[in-house]
Amino acid sequence: MTDTTKRTGPKTSRRRLLAAAGVASPMFFIRNGWAAGKSLYVGTYTGVQGEYVRKFVIPKFQSDLNCKVFQTENVTLGNIGILRTQKANPNYSVMMMDDVGVPIAKAEHLITQLPKDKIPNLAKVFPNFMYNDSYGAAFAVSTVAPWFNKSVKPVESFADLWSERFRGRYMMVTPKQTQTVQLLAVAASMATGKPILEAQYELEKGWPKMAELKPNVQTIYDSINTAILAVSQGQADAAGPDFSKAVLPAIARGAPLVQAKPAEGAFAGVNTVTLVNKAPEPDLGAAFIDHILSPAVQKGMAEYTIAAPSVSGVDLDAKTAAVVPYPESRMKEMKLYVLDWEKINPQRGAILDKFNQVFGS
Fold this sequence. Notes:
Distance between the termini: 102 Å
Shape: globular
Structural class: alpha/beta
CATH superfamily of the largest domain: Periplasmic binding protein-like II
Helix content: 40-55%
Number of domains: 2
Strand content: 15-25%
CATH class of the largest domain: Alpha Beta
Low-confidence stretches: 1-29
CATH architecture of the largest domain: 3-Layer(aba) Sandwich
Radius of gyration: 25 Å
Number of strands: 12
Mean pLDDT: 90
CATH topology of the largest domain: D-Maltodextrin-Binding Protein, domain 2
Order of helices and strands: HHEHEHEHEEEEHHHEHEHEEHHHHEHH
Largest sheet: 12 strands, mixed
């Protein structure tokens, strides 16, 4: 019996040591071992937002899950174009797009419903920022308005863009982006005398007013960075309408610009994240979306890009809180409009053709 006790003692000690070593190991190796060595392809936005994802979101996610993330940067229609090309055999698992893109991508079976059980932070998203039966979740909300060089008379209304003082001095955003549809809604409002949210259903009545804007258009820009540089240097006086997430960070870095606060209100620029249909890594994609929607990432992204979070419970610094539409109730206070994209999307092809006809001739 003595011999047995002597033999058992050391074995028990080794088991205890092994157990202690297990407790001391970083727990995420146990929880997230399923992700180790996997690769995730994500499509993000360009500009400051894409930069934040690249510098801060992806490195932390890769470190926590011991995986590799490959990022490409594009705009909404570009990202939808990628999904269409890869529909039968997608490389991407996560794709970002504006709220306007979600119903398009859903109708074409390019994205799938977000799994609530695998994305716990969906519960924190404001209900108004869940789109198309949870096929898209907002992760950032900007204002969309004109902007101008601070040396010129302020733009106090969208109607100011039609003023003689901007003859040949206004840079209009490309009709490939949704901001020009918002500008067309303003033109329809001006033509009909109806509020913007009513006039959006009569967009065709805005085209004569858009034709009146043409003499003021110096150029149509594709790159917001190019436009910011041109207006900052005085080569043009005003530009847009465009996202505050692109303009305000430039202002914070010293660009001599001001984003207008039009008397009639501005538009809400909503950025969403979606899970690709037939994604090669659906679980890893869901984990990435959950990371994007986490309060820590929402706070960091909001303060870096000067855009509002889409989830509750984020404590923003005073400088950011003063200018972004957060919490959700501030959207009404700031008179931010969200267009009826379900009705407008079927018209997009015709609208783009008409823009090219009016401004290309």
